[in-house]
Every structure is written in C-alpha cells, then in structure tokens.
C-alpha cells in the first residue's frame, strides 16, 4: 500500500483509528511514527506492532527496520509529520476546507490578536473558533490550552466540532514549534499575520535565523489569493514578504501603511486611536493599554478585513473586548493600589509592559518577575536590565523552574543588574512569598505587576505541575491584608 491508497482509505469513512501515540494504540490502528525534538516515534514501532497496529507510516529517512509480518502494511513517506497532518484532516472530513482559517504568529501578541479577531466576528454575528495559548474554543465548549498550538489531530477534531456548532471561521496561534513540526501544514489559510520577532525560544531553534525561518513557513505556504498581514515596523517583515506569494497588507502605528492607527491617548482607562484603511477612518476605544496593544489591534483588524469584514464591524469588535486572561489583567480589589498580572516573559515584552505602565503610575512601580527553566538562558540578564530601568522595587523570584535549580536561574537574572545590591532589588525564590512581599510593600497609588506566568494556573517544578495562579494568590493575599 502506498500513501495515496492509505489516504483514500482514511477518507472513506470506514477507516481504522489514526494515532501517533504508541501508548494508546489499539488493534487495527494506523500508527504514524513522527520524529519529535525529544522523542522519535520510530523507536516505538515494535511496541505498536505488539499491540496490534495494522498500518505503520514511517519516514523513509529513518533507519528503523520493520520485519515483514502478515497483514501489516508499511507506508514509507518523505516526511511523516506532514503525512500525519494530511491524514488528520482526512480522518475528520477535511474540516479545514470548510472554514475560513486565520492565523497569527510572532514572539508576542498572538493571544491578544486571536481574542480580538474572535471579538470582531462576534460583533458581526458570526461564530469563530479559537485555538491558542490560553484556551481552545470549538464553539461548543471552551477548555484550557495545554499548548499554544496543539497537534494536528487535536486541531482537525476541533475544526470538525466548530463546523458542527455552525462556525464559519477559525483563528489560531501558530507557534514557531508548531510550524517547525508541521502541526498546521495541511490547513489553507485565508490570511496570516506576523506581529514581531524578539529574543525567545533559542533553546529550541538555536539561532535567530532558524527562529525566523520557522515563523516564515506559514507565509511561504500562503496561496496567491491569500493575504499576509505584516508589521511594517518590524525589521523582519521585509524578509517574510520576500518569501511570500500572497498579497501583502502592511500595518503600522503612527506611520503610513495600508492599515494604520493614529494614537490619541493612553491612560488608566484604556487606549484611544483612529483606525485608517483604504481612505476610511474610524475611532476605536479599547480598555487594553499601550502602543504595543495598538499594533496587536492592527494585526487583528488586518486578518478580519482579509476575511471579508468591513471596517465599521472590525472597529466595533476591537472596542468590545474588555480584557484578555493574563494580559495586563487587573486583580479585583478595593486596595488603594493596583495589582496586575501579565504573561510578559521576555525582555522585549517586559519593556513594552513596563514602559506603558510607568507613565500611568501615581506612585511606585513594583515588579515581581523570574525566568522559566529549561528555556532560553540568554534573555535572563536582559530581563533584569529592563526591570532595573523602570521599577522602583524589583522582586526577583521563581517562574517555572522545571528541571533547573531556581537559585541558578536567579543568579543569571541578577547578573544583568548594574547594581544588584541596590535596596530597590529584593530576592525571594518562593513565588508566593514574593507576591506577598510586593503586596505588603505596596502603598497608596502604587502599581504592582506580577510578570511571567499570566493566565497559567500552575507552576512546573522538576517535571511536575503544581496548582499555582498568580491571580488567585494575589487575590487571597489582598483579602487577608484588610
């Protein structure tokens, strides 16, 4: 059997179950062996055969030798991750072909953009599925997201559920890992947006060039009648545009572009700006703060306009969204100071957030932050430099240390401070105690920002997840402070 014959079987509606996880294989299943960054599915072929798998899809470049067995079909393909993506769509009735698919990629802003896109379609009276860092919304139910971009089997099943619920649109965050691993390779996108590229994920990609190449894959795959929505103010966008066959829609803040925004005000009530597109202009007032968030609004607007929405509907949808989980999210309290939680976990993201908050502070800016373990170590001292620039009190703590030693991570952060012995810098490895220290230190008019984990309701220590929510910890401490 060749791949085309297997694909026809999967499309027939009478197909064996498709699986890429050796742990859940059942007799008669199709097993696709995919080589991942940490685990190679080809190593588990003997196990899946012992469990009764009937069809094995493996990569032709693999050195695995599969003994001939009666009734076993071995299908060799150039790229098994791509084969899995194609089979996943076929096994679910090719739902991607029946949806208008939109994507956003970039280091920062992806979650905000997807929530804004969904809000715009809701303003148009349409259902829009959402797959991203915080939630998976298939328009039937909403579940917490374990990954920014899930595996292609999960995506295809979610898309099928979106169609069942009457949705016509889907917006998805396309992570660099997912793009590199072909998780969305079989989806045709009407439009894809690029927000920015800053230092992150070099533990995986090794170089900025590799990181950009992964982000660029989605734009290289766009058809000529699709649209690439690109940030004119990012130095990497020209390179992305050069490799794209799609139409280009440039966006920029306070600068001429196909789609632009003129900022009028940023204060503690939100941000006001004028949205301009093809000779039209319309006012937008959003509770979301900051110039960087205006850029996110433009990326979302570009995707929606490319999908066929009009500017007035887009503006209404952008203005309607009140908050995004873990993105400058305010902890509700009647305390005389403000506590915010944000996902900022890179130096550039911290700079955007802190430079926005500093002018709005009536008193001091208190920053609680750390860095994740087993991730890009080069950003740790850079984050310290950013915090030292803006914070009146900096409290360095743990984030998700994973398998690294928390004290080692903190030492690498502290190395970035010009004056690590400054009285405005405190070290508290216990994150709960660090948040408590910030709240105990706060006075009238202060702003506390708890950065790094945002919407996450867990902390990863070693290889285990423990319940931990910055919002809930802060809320409990604020109640006890009364």
Description of the molecule:
- This protein has helices at residues 3-11, 45-50, 80-91, 110-123, 152-164, 176-180, 202-205, 208-220, 237-242, 291-306, 311-320, 347-357, 379-390, 406-414, 431-441, 470-481; strands spanning 18-19, 30-32, 55-59, 73-77, 100-105, 128-131, 135-137, 142-144, 169-173, 191-194, 227-231, 247-253, 259-267, 270-277, 280-286, 329-330, 338-342, 365-369, 393-396, 425-427, 447-451, 458-461, 464-467.
- It has 482 residues and is α/β, with parallel strands linked by helices.
- It folds into 3 domains: 3-80, MurE/MurF, N-terminal domain (Udp-n-acetylmuramoylalanyl-d-glutamate--2,6- Diaminopimelate Ligase, Chain: A, domain 1, 3-Layer(aba) Sandwich); 92-320, Mur-like, catalytic domain (UDP-N-acetylmuramoyl-L-alanine:D-glutamate ligase), CATH 3.40.1190; 329-481, Mur ligase, C-terminal domain (Protein-Tyrosine Phosphatase, Chain A, Alpha-Beta Complex).
- The strands form 4 sheets. Strands 8-7-6-9-5-10-11-12-13-14-15 form an 11-stranded mixed beta sheet, sandwiched between helices. The protein has a 6-stranded mixed beta sheet with strand order 16-17-21-18-19-20, with helices on both faces.
- Strand 22 (458-461) and strand 23 form a beta hairpin.
- The termini are far apart.
């Amino acid at each position: 059997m060749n791949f085309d014959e297997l694909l026809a079987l999967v499309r027939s509606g009478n197909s064996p179950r498709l699986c890429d996880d050796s742990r859940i294989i059942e007799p008669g299943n199709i097993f696709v062996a995919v080589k991942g960054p940490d685990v190679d599915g080809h190593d588990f072929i003997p196990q899946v055969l012992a469990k009764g798998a009937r069809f094995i899809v493996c990569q032709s470049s693999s050195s695995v030798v599969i003994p001939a067995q009666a009734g076993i079909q071995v299908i060799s393909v150039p790229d098994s991750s791509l084969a899995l993506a194609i089979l996943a769509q076929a096994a679910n009735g090719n739902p991607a072909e029946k949806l208008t698919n939109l994507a956003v990629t970039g280091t920062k802003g992806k979650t905000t953009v997807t929530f804004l896109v969904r809000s715009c379609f809701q303003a148009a009276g349409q259902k829009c599925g959402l797959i991203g860092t915080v939630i998976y919304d298939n328009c039937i139910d909403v579940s917490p997201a374990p990954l920014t971009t899930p595996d292609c089997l999960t995506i295809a099943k979610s898309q099928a559920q979106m169609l069942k619920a009457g949705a016509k649109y889907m917006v998805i965050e396309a992570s660099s890992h997912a793009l590199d691993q072909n998780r969305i390779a079989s989806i045709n996108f009407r439009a894809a947006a690029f927000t920015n590229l800053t230092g992150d994920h070099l533990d995986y990609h090794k170089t900025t060039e590799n990181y950009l190449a992964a982000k660029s894959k989605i734009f290289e795959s766009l058809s000529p009648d699709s649209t690439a929505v690109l940030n004119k103010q990012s130095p990497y966008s020209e390179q992305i545009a050069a490799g794209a066959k799609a139409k280009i829609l440039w966006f920029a803040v306070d600068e001429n572009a196909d789609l632009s925004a003129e900022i009028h005000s940023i204060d503690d009530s939100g941000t006001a700006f004028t949205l301009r597109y093809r000779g039209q202009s319309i006012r937008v007032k959003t509770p979301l703060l900051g110039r960087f968030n205006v850029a996110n609004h433009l990326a979302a607007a570009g995707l929606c306009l490319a999908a066929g929405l009009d500017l007035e509907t887009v503006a209404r949808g952008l203005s309607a969204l009140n908050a995004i989980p873990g993105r400058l999210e305010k902890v509700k309290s009647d305390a005389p100071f403000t506590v915010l939680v944000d996902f900022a976990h890179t130096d550039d993201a911290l700079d955007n957030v802190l430079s926005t908050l500093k002018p709005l502070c009536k008193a001091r800016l208190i920053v609680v932050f750390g860095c994740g373990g087993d991730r890009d170590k080069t950003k740790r001292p850079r984050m310290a430099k950013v915090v030292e620039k803006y914070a009146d009190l900096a409290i360095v703590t743990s984030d998700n240390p994973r398998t690294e030693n928390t004290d080692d991570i903190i030492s690498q952060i502290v190395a970035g401070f010009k004056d690590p012995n400054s009285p405005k810098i405190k070290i508290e490895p216990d994150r709960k105690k660090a948040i408590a220290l910030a709240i105990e230190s706060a006075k009238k008019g202060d702003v506390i920002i708890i950065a790094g984990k945002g919407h996450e309701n867990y902390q990863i220590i070693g290889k285990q997840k423990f319940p931990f929510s910055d919002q809930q910890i802060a809320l409990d401490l604020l109640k006890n402070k009364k």
